[in-house]
TrEMBL record, chain A:
The keyword Cell membrane applies. InterPro entries: AAA+_ATPase, ABC_Ni/Peptide_Import, ABC_transporter-like_ATP-bd, ABC_transporter-like_CS, Oligopep_ABC_C, P-loop_NTPase. GO terms for molecular function: ATP binding; ATP hydrolysis activity. This is ABC transporter ATP-binding protein. It comes from Oceanospirillum sediminis.
TrEMBL record, chain B:
It comes from the Bacteria. This is ABC transporter permease. The keyword Hydrolase does not apply. Its main location: membrane. It comes from Oceanospirillum sediminis. It is a multi-pass membrane protein. Residues 101-313 form the ABC transmembrane type-1 domain.
Length: 361, 331
């Protein structure tokens, strides 16, 4: 784990426990998150991005288990490193981090609040769980938070019930609840998917403004590359439980390397470009029971495939600086160790046999 | 809110009026009347009544008036608190009913308490430990409880208690206390006996409510707000009790009125089978003897209990769920 990293996910495996053995859902992914950085996890539904995000808080649903790897969290004040993957989901140590240091906002603002309790009560509860404050102070804090996320008339709104809020307001309130204890990491699992496009833009702006003001790091889970370009510093593209490409947002958008990333980017409709049909990627994600042998993308890849594509899962490895790649078409391997990153720039790495031509011995 | 309650009360009154008409007609429906029943009884004893004598009784009791006149007379007296005269008991109906009512009310209330106090925790347990041995065992017992008719269950318990303990589980009092005036001792004696009819009356309802609680809670446990509550760092047990359990209580509470109906309609048969001194045997006898004012009053009492129960469950629901409360305020 690097000194400047808050969170380091190392070779994380998550599997679905079933009667007949277990099924891998997340297949050994690694990434790091620096202080104040926005990292986007991108992929189609079922690629394991939501499961990964839930595992960071140990909130995996029934049957899903972390079956290997580490989730290291460095406490920003004390500097102590905790392996979240080694804790029990209801352990006191885990509960102390949850909601305080690592907070989360969810996909469906409509159902993320209990309809029977006021918004204020549900925010105050988080404050009182982690801070020794009086009920009155917690209430003041809730009003302050609601004001911060742009809820009009927060002193009144604090006593309202969720059904009196619109979808956008509820997502704002959800953000207020997540930020109640100034978390250092905010996990946002498709926070705008359920909202109208105009509201979506407002919420994203709010998140970005709050991030700059409060300095937390955000893990932003989405399937929408358009949002990634606006929000993220760094992107990890996921496919069937693996990270297939990882790099700075700029690099990913300007010089996508993995065939899957390229196709994803082509699928974004562009203003001013007249298209008869929306571009889509042929085929669909294989279901988890029928994971292809070799590269998981080999059933949909349109490139000229090599033997290795059918035989081995490609490893995520760094590529040479962009210029070189553009000129030569293929990149030389600079390092196998993705973890050693110069703090100022992010190594662009990709998991594809077509790019890393030399087979690793 | 208060406006809402008043509204509900008014509609309850209208409901009662309609019900009283139906009840009155229904009681009159079987062939014959009290005069026939009386003559029948007399003839069993060897005495013979002439047609004139029977007609005379009819005249005296007002049974020859048209039905609507009889109804109006009865209803207007009823509103003024005069429930009429029981020909069978030779006492005012209100005295007969008042004697039996406390026992019925106690029985109904105890059964409700029994039902919910057992069903809610068991439903929670079953949902949290879905498919565990405990869950399966409770489900099995529940199915048996649902499947056995009340009177059958009562008979089985009566049989078992006399075979194994040599005592009768029937009745509500020990022989010593049977005719004693109400006292603390008598109350304790009743409590010692009442659990048998309570179990008989409550088992089916309990089984049903366990299913309801289990199913709703299983639904609620998968909702996003539960994960969101866990994400705050709250202890798992507290999360479950504060959010999904609270939500799952709503359908359970809303069936309260309906559950009350079930208990009340089951009570007469159980009362007869177990020879309880409640309104059950009284009701059956009044129908057999065509003692119409007594029967009418009893039907009305049962109806009032059901309507009150529904009203109470609606009010409770409003108390529990802000969405319903506010919907009611706007309406």
């Amino acid at each position: 784990m690097n000194q400047n990293e808050l969170l380091r996910v190392e070779e994380l495996h998550i599997s679905l426990q079933m009667d007949k053995g277990s099924l891998p859902v997340v297949n050994g992914i690694s990434f790091g998150l620096k202080k104040g950085q926005i990292l986007a996890l991108v992929g189609e539904s079922g690629c394991g991005k939501s499961v990964t995000s839930l595992s960071l808080m140990r909130l995996l649903g029934k049957g899903l288990e972390i079956s290997g790897g580490q989730i290291l969290f460095r406490h920003p004040e004390s500097g102590d490193v905790t392996d979240i993957a080694a804790l029990g989901s209801n352990d006191k140590a885990m509960r102390k981090l949850r909601g305080d240091q690592i907070a989360m906002i969810f996909q469906e603002p409509m159902s993320s609040f209990s309809p029977l309790h006021t918004i204020g009560e549900q925010i105050m509860e988080v404050v009182r769980l982690h801070r020794k404050v009086s009920k009155l102070d917690a209430r003041k804090r809730a009003i302050e938070l609601l004001d911060k996320v742009g809820i009009a008339d927060p002193a009144q709104a604090v006593d309202r019930y969720p059904h009196e809020f619109s979808g956008g307001q509820r997502q704002r309130a959800m953000i207020a609840r997540a930020l109640a204890c100034d978390p250092s990491v905010l996990v946002a699992d498709e926070p705008t998917t359920a909202l109208d496009v105009t509201i979506q833009a407002q919420i994203l702006k709010l998140l970005k403004d709050l991030q700059q003001e409060m300095g937390m790091a955000i893990i932003f889970i989405t399937h929408d590359l358009g949002l990634v370009a606006q929000m993220a510093d760094e992107v990890a593209i996921m496919y069937m439980g693996n990270v297939v490409e990882h790099g700075a947002t700029r690099a990913i958008f300007k010089q996508p390397q993995h065939p899957y990333t390229k196709r994803l980017l082509q699928a974004i409709p562009r203003l001013g470009v007249i298209q008869d049909k929306l571009q889509s990627i042929e085929g669909s994600v294989p279901n988890l029971f029928e994971r292809p042998v070799g590269c998981a993308f080999n059933t949909r890849c349109t490139e000229q495939q090599r033997d290795a594509c059918q035989q081995r899962l490609p490893a995520l490895r760094a590529i040479e600086p962009l210029g070189l790649v553009a000129q030569q078409g293929t990149a030389a391997v600079v390092s196998n160790d993705v973890g050693v990153v110069n703090s100022s720039d992010v190594i662009h790495s990709v998991a594809c046999h077509l790019i890393h031509t030399e087979a690793v011995a | 809110m208060i406006q809402m309650i008043i509204k509900r009360m008014v509609s309850a009154l209208a409901m009662l009026t309609v019900l009283s008409m139906i009840a009155f007609v229904l009681i009159q429906l079987p062939p014959g009347d009290y005069a026939d029943a009386y003559a029948g009884k007399k003839s069993q004893g060897g005495a013979v009544m002439t047609a004139e004598q029977i007609e005379e009784i009819r005249d005296k009791l007002g049974l020859n008036e048209p039905l609507y006149i009889q109804y109006i007379n009865w209803a207007s007296d009823f509103v003024q608190g005069d429930f009429g005269y029981s020909w069978e008991y030779h006492r005012p109906v209100i005295d007969v009913v008042a004697e039996r009512m406390p026992v019925t009310l106690t029985l109904v209330f105890m059964t409700l308490v029994f039902t919910y106090f057992i069903a809610v925790p068991m439903g929670i347990y079953c949902a949290l430990r879905q498919y565990s041995i405990g869950d399966h065992a409770i489900s099995l017992l529940g199915y048996i409880g649902l499947a056995i008719p009340n009177f059958m269950f009562a008979l089985i318990l009566l049989y078992l208690s006399s075979v194994f303990w040599g005592t009768s589980a029937g009745g509500l009092f020990s022989p010593v206390m049977q005719d004693a005036p109400w006292s603390w001792e008598k109350f304790k004696d009743m409590m010692a006996h009442i659990w048998v009819p309570v179990v008989v009356l409550g088992t089916a309802g309990t089984a049903f409510q366990i299913r309801t609680m289990r199913a709703t809670l299983l639904d609620e446990l998968n909702k996003m707000y539960v994960t969101a509550a866990r994400a705050t760092g709250m202890d798992e047990r507290k999360v479950i009790m504060k959010y999904p359990v609270r939500m799952a209580l709503n359908p359970v509470v809303s069936t309260l009125g309906w559950e009350l109906t079930n208990i009340i309609s089951g009570a007469p048969i159980v009362g007869v089978v177990m020879s309880l001194p409640d309104m059950g045997p009284l009701f059956l006898n009044s129908l057999l003897n065509q003692d119409m004012y007594l029967a009418g009053a009893l039907v009305m009492v049962y109806c009032i209990l059901v309507i009150l129960g529904t009203l109470i469950s609606d009010l409770l629901l409003m108390l529990l769920d802000p969405r319903i409360r506010m919907g009611a305020m706007k309406a």
